[in-house]
Amino acid sequence: MEYVITFTWDDEADVWIAASNDIPGFVLESGSFDALLERSRFAIPELLELNTPVTKQEIIFTGGSIMTLPQGQIYTTNDIYALPEGQRAELIDGQMYMMAPPTRIHQQLITELVSAIHQHIKNHNGSCQVYPAPFAVFLNEDDKNYVEPDISIICDRNNLTDKGCNGAPDWVIEIVSPSTERIDYGIKLFKYRSSGVREYWIINPITKTVNVFDFEHDEKTRQYSFEQDIPSCIYEDFAIRVSGFLE
Fold first, then answer.
1. Where does 43-182 show beta strands of DSSP type E?
2. Lowest-pLDDT range, 26-30, 36-40, 59-63?
C-alpha cells in the first residue's frame, strides 16, 4: 500500500508544510525543507504503527510517499529499452512509471525555458549544457534508475555520453501534469535530492506556481507564482518570469 505525502510552501507563514490524507494526524511544518524531511522520517512510521498493523521494518521512505516494500517485479533499463516504439517510461529504484504524451502548454514551456536558459549560459560563456526531454539520465549510474526530466542542465561534461547523462544533473526542471503530480512532488523530489541534484524546479501550469528546491544550501527553497521573477539557485544573476512565456 502507498501513502501519499504532500509538501507545500505557505507564503504567509513562511514555512514548509507536510500533510497526508492517508495518515490520520500527520501534519508537520518547518522553515527548512531538509528539516521537514527529517522530521517526517521519524513521525510517519510512528503514526502508521499507531493506526495500522505495519512494522517499521516493512516501511521505506521515498520522498513524497511512504510505501511498503514492493512485492512485484524489479525492472531494469533493459525493460525500458524493450518497450514498444513510441512508449516512454522511467525507472526509480526498480519501479517503472509509464509516461503520458505531453500537452501543448507543457511543450511550450519547455521550448521557452530551454531557450532562456541556453541564452543565459551562452551570454556568460558558460560551460553547462541544456537538454530537453526525451533525454536519458542515469541518476545512480546503475540499471534500476532511469529518468527523462523535462529539462536537464548539466555542468560536468564528463557525465555526458552518447546515451545521455551518467549521474545527477546540476539543475532539473519538471512541468507537472495531473498524471505526474504524485511522482514530481513526491518520489522524484526525494530521488533528485538524494542523488546529488543541486536545484530542482516543479512548474505547475494548473496552479500557476513554481516550487524551487535549493538542495545545495536550502536558502532559496520556496514557492513562487508565475508572475514573480524566480531566481536560479546555481546562477546568481539569472531569474525567470514564467508568465512571460505564456503571453
1. 59-62, 65-68, 88-92, 95-99, 129-132, 137-138, 151-154, 160-161, 164-166, 171-175
2. 59-63
